[in-house]
Amino acid sequence: PAYIPEVADAKLPDDFLWGVASAAFQVEGAVDAEGKGPSVWDLIPHRWVNSIADNTTGDVAANEYYLYKQDNARLKALGIQSYSFTLAWTRFFPFGRGPVNEQGVAHYDDLFTDIEANGIKSVVTLFHWDTPLALFNSYGAWTSEDIVADYVNYAKYAIMRYDKYVTAWYTFNEPQYCNWRFSNYPFGTILPSYNGIGTGGLRAQYLCGHYTLLAHATIYKWYKNVYKGTKPMTFKNSANYIIANSSSAADQEAVQRVNDYNMGWYGGVWTNGGDYPASLKDTLGDILPVYTQAQKDLIAGAADFYAIDAYTTLYAAAPPNGIAACVANRSDPNYPQCATTTQLQPNGFPAGPNADAGATWLYSTPGGVRPFLSFITKEYFPKVKSIVVSEFGFADPAEASFNTLEQILWDLRRADYMQSFLDNILAARVLDGVNVTGAFAWAIYDNFEWNSGLGTKFGLQYVNNTSYERYPKASMFQFLNWFKLHGEDKTATANITAPVGK
Ligand code: PNW
């Protein structure tokens, strides 16, 4: 049943991009196969004691490296239009730079041809956190400007080889997690520190953000102006809809600060002429690197659409001692964001902080995406012309302890989340006039959920971690049914009058 009755009969245009998503390190396994070099994520589960909640590793993950033909056949059989997946830099350039690994490239040649042969569209991310370990060892990876040239060298190679197969490009997944997902800077006890940066410092985080956005903008401008590429390109943002905890001015300001620190940090592409928001500059001072005018010009306008990984909804409040006191004190626990967030309580289903360490950040509040899409379009980034929800998904807190196949496959909370989330996206489009042009569910199947390990499950398909068989869950059928009901009405496009900016 529709959660939003007004959209029960509404249709999406044919060119609405939709499907399921994955990331190389989370699904591929085969971490040392066919010439692949090590990434930081190959090392972390083995060398950093207790870094992974259930002590699993990504060594095999979902074994996709060997099972991709079955996976693609299954996507086709299920009727999924598009697959959003990522490429592992260390399969192309095992040491991050230097000679190309032909075996790794041959593997991706096969993958792309097979996806195409199954009639599925490829949506491709060039970098999803699996930084080549060699670049960490030689210059501290994302804390050094050297990373820009190495990323650009890899990205150019992958783009030139695969552009013809790709429907849309993402340069980066969620640079908002630059602080540690890209390299796990806190594991400086295993790897040395670089550039005067110790372990997990703020300076490392903001250097990482700085060079990531420069790398993104450099490859974007090359793709459009030199290569003359025609496919849409952007990077994937990570942010959630933020509601003020109260009507007080301080809590309103807290909302603004949370948005600045998540979205505004990389928002120079659409606003501020390529620069950082004033709140970051004021608060961070000399911690925040400075863009030259030429760099700001490079960044401004360096994207074709806004991609948002939106999972949940949060309240924001001023920190206990107030925003001003926090901004003035670098050792305040809330520095530099100087706002606190708490989760909106989910409707209907219990979700508890203690139920599953991997999902504490993710209450099921899919209603937030509708106002969030309006917020992005109308208020925040006036230059955004269209939005793709590049990831949304749910890890049921109870799923880790499910043990019968029936319990696992009857994932009603995730099915509920899918139905409600999609209804809200559709409502944003047809009732609120937001030009949302795509939606991708995370994840194609259960996979290696970073520091939460294999035990935290986001899949629309269950993966048996002994046989590696995949089984579609109820949520997969809910998802597919939704697109059967709402997809493919050729008349719909003409009815959408999307506002572009203010
Ligand atoms: C995404 N949040 O990260 C990543 O792109 C995936 O690799 C990951 O598996 C997936 O979400 C599920 O965690 C996010 O706090 C991490 O809102 C955190 C948030 C959102 C996305």
Automatic annotation (TrEMBL):
Protein's UniProt keywords contain Signal: yes
Keyword Signal among UniProt keywords: yes
Single Gene Ontology MF annotation: beta-glucosidase activity
Any Gene Ontology biological process: carbohydrate metabolic process
UniProt keyword list: Signal
Recorded superkingdom: Eukaryota
Family: Belongs to the glycosyl hydrolase 1 family.
Protein's UniProt name: Glycoside hydrolase family 1 protein
Residues of the full protein shown: 98 to 599 of 608
